[in-house]
Each structure stands twice: as C-alpha cells, then as structure tokens.
Amino acid sequence: MDPFGLKVIFIGLVILLIGAVILRVLVYKKIKTDPYVNRLYRKISNLLFTLSGAGFIFWFSGYQGAFILGMRFWYLILKLIALVWIGLIIRYWVKEVPLKKSERKRKQEFERYLPKKRKK
Q: For residue 71, what pLDDT is reported?
C-alpha cells in the first residue's frame, strides 16, 4: 500500500478513536439522564473502539508489509461488519427504545396506584 493511503487510513482511525473516547466520556459523565440515550452512546462507542482497534492492527500490518493482515480485503470485511453493527444499533433505537419507553411509562402508571412502603 502506498504511504499516502496509509496516512489517510491512519487519520481516519485516529478520528474513530477520538469519537469513541468522547462518547465514552459522555456516558460516564451521564450528560443525558435518559438511560436509553446512554446505552445508545455506549453501543456507538463500542463500535468505534472495535473498528479503530481492528483497523490499527490492519494498518500496522500493512505498514510493516505483512502480506496476509496487510491486505485491503480486511478493510472491506471491516466495513461490512460495521454496516451490520450500525444496522443493529439503528434497529435498537427505532424498534426497541420506543417499546421500552412505553413499557416503562405503563409500569409507572400502574405503580402510581400501588401503596408505598411505610417508613419506620
């Protein structure tokens, strides 16, 4: 692989890693109080950490001239894995979160009518 291509890939991987760190800090600082948004940030952060870690391994192998791990084919596989993972994250946000929110709201409505525990 040519040196310019390796530099572009390296810069892209660094951007992925910085994005993952920023999202992880947002999750741990609990900027959003909604647990579903925090879980979404955590899922995206895990995706970015995994992609950047595997990408750095493939990048380093290409930089060193290792034949098998340095092939561009692995970047294609990495992109396909990322697309599937992004699809799962979108499915979580579009399908699962509204169901969980409605379930949570329904449970709070039900518990509102239940007697509270007495304090001694």
A: 79
